[in-house]
Amino acid sequence: MTATTLDAPAPAGDVRVTFPRLLRSEWIKLWSLRSTAWTLAITAVVIVGFVLLITWGMLDANEMSGNSEDVNALDAFGAVPYLGPTAVAVLGALTITGEYTTGMIRSSFAAAPRRLPVLWSKALVLAVVVFVTTALAVAVAASLQALMFGSRGASVDLGDPQVVRALIGNALYVTGIAVLAFGLGVLMRHSAAAITTTLGILLVLPILFSLIPWEPLQDLTPFLPNVAGSQITLTDAMIEQQAGFTGSVVLSAWQGFGVLLAYLVVVLAAGAWLTKRRDA
Amino acid sequence: MIEATNLTKRYGAKLAVDQISFRVEPGTVTGFLGPNGAGKSTTMRMIVGLDRPTAGHVTVNGKPYAEHHSPLTQVGALLEAKAVHTGRSARNHLRALAATHGIGEKRVNEVIEMTGLESVAKRRVGGFSLGMGQRLGIAAALLGDPRTLILDEPVNGLDPEGVLWVRNLVKYLASQGRTVFLSSHLMSEMAVTADHLIVIGRGKIVAAGPVKDIVAQGTRTSVRVVSPQAAQLAELLVGPEVSVTSDERGSLVVHGTTAPAIGEAAAAAGVVLHELTPVQGSLEEAFMSLTQDTVEYHSTMGHDVAPVAATGQEATR
Lengths: 280, 317
Known about the structure:
heterodimer, A: 280 residues, mainly alpha, B: 317 residues, alpha/beta, Rossmann fold, Alpha-Beta Plaits, 3 domains, six-stranded mixed sheet, four-stranded antiparallel sheet, transmembrane helix (chain A)
């Protein structure tokens, strides 16, 4: 008893800001807002729901056309990179813009006036929470797929490292987009602006690039954040297939994800530089 | 102890704070008094590192605020606008702030109790009244049991009971040896709360010192004299330093001399006095006269000598 009391640090002397404590603070902040649970729940439901629906549809189409070949169960996860990031993009942006629009940022920066550790702890907590949620959703989707459609030959082969990489890749990609939205939120400080910009990058830019008949744009398309980043959700075999019907560069899974990470580094570095300089 | 040296903040073309230097001593309540837009909030934001000074610097207990390892135990700040996420409960807001310093739940409960927020602590802040918001801001400021408190307009939006509560709290905190720095545009509030005053107008400090001295400096003490021979006495007293005004028959208000001097002059001339009363100016008057100068000065600049003002600014850069 006495020994424990002696070993314990004096509570008064230990009151100071540390990075683990900032992480804990951001954890409390994240979970004490209703929007967090909502956006994460929507993301999980959308992932599980669409994977199952698409598997069902693929099997029906296959059987109706009398195709005897098995469907590729991993194809059903193709919806994840398109539908998964929408809600988490909102969550990522709001994590920081919500503080700016309400004035909370002044409390946060008054408590931790070095500012940048606040940004990094926010980004880290966001990334971990989004990754775990998406990975769990993908795992649940794969399990239910096997349970419901496994007898009809539609279940992912978890013994194949390529398949496992692609499944985890879904969670990595969705997390990357959440952090991209966060970074844009740091830069813009306005919820609507950050969310619109992120969704514009995800949904509008690829369409725009394919519509404008100007060669350099076509060459750049593989390097768009979402086009590059989502390569990680495909197996190498699928990426090879992709190379078959496009004339432009095809990035490998990790090259593509590397490009997305490069965007994140640039956006976060610019955000950090501005955060340090701007008045809160 | 807060020490500002040549602190300056410029927003675009507007000079919000203009080379101010001041010191806030521990163990006293120092009032920061000025009209709206005088630069009070900007100065306070610069003290806690939220706004970056254009020039000059400010330290808290010997160091810039951002260099303290435990900022919340150095300074507790209640800043002007709400600084709380509206979607979070009061309790979670305090828990999140406390967590940054490893401050425990026990202290969170203490400040909730101290500020009388028990009944609403679980409610979302978005639905709070202005007064509840102020109490929450004060609770947050007290979290780290700080040596210095900075309160920007703390009585704003509070009911009379709340105003009294803030006044007593502030005095209590100062009596424990803490530095308390609070701003207000309400002179009456300062008169009863503050020991020392820093008066700011248009980004410049127009007066600083104990409340008594500010009142003396900012107002001319006058003497009220009632006499049946008022006209004769007025003639007797008027001089280069002394002015006499008369608002009613037989009653004079004399500026620039003292009651004993008037009494002696009257006795020497054989003038009968019915009343001889020194009138102490109020903080209200002091404030008006101190800040009026700065306002008038600037409006003149704007209308008549704008080009000169512009070159003047070039020169200071």
